[in-house]
Amino acid sequence: IAKPTHGVLTGINEQHMATFGSQENIINTKYELVESLPAEGMAFFNSKNKYCRELYEKTKGKKVLYGESAAFPGGENILGAVAVAKELGMTEEEIAKAVREIGNTFPGVEVTKGKDGITILNAMYSANPDGVIANLEYLRTFPGKKVLVMPCLIELGPFAGEVHKRIAKKVIQVCDLAIITTGEYFETLSQGSDKVVFSEDPQDIVEKIKNTTQGSGAVLLEGRVPLSILTLL
Fold this sequence. Notes:
- There is one protein chain.
- This protein is an alpha/beta fold.
- It is 42% helix and 17% strand.
- The protein has helices at 17-20, 23-35, 50-58, 75-87, 92-100, 129-140, 160-174, 186-190, 202-213, 227-232; strands at residues 6-9, 42-46, 63-66, 110-113, 119-123, 146-150, 177-180, 196-198, 218-222.
- A six-stranded mixed sheet has the order 4-5-9-6-7-8, sandwiched between helices. A three-stranded parallel sheet has the order 1-2-3.
- A hairpin with a 5-residue loop joins strand 4 (110-113) and strand 5 (119-123).
- It is globular, with a radius of gyration of 19 Å.
């Protein structure tokens, strides 16, 4: 319908595995964007994602591999935007000005101040494996105690256990407290660590956050957690 002339593949992971049935189906469906481009079109691929790198090598048409020099997780998104902007004719000066105006933000995360001095990182729109890892790295950059609130991820099919183990490793590295709001993969996420607890009750969750942060620190709300938690914070 849109007939794009430029296409950007920012990432491919196990998200929606249960819907698409296999990793191969997800890759093929994402690649439809590149296959739909006209001969004079341009495809952009995230170098930080192994599937995107493989598709870049496979692609015969005009293409760009971006993000290789990203200094932090998620930084490749800015470099991808810069690559597209250059292709569309923006000057270095225009791009630099636009990047400076972004400020200290992170894709998909809204940062606000809560009660008692807590910093809230709102990433409640959705959650996928790579996004959770990147957001935890972003949480790491904030001062004070660090808390994560998230449900177990869904639609991961046979990769669910492996993905939750990967997230658990990062959670235990970064967080002083992680509160998991659904039970399907809680044991996998906790890995026996007393830093990781289960709770479905918004009031209890907020009390646990306050007891940990004690007036400072940051809390990452990741994925579809109850909206009442954000309201209470």
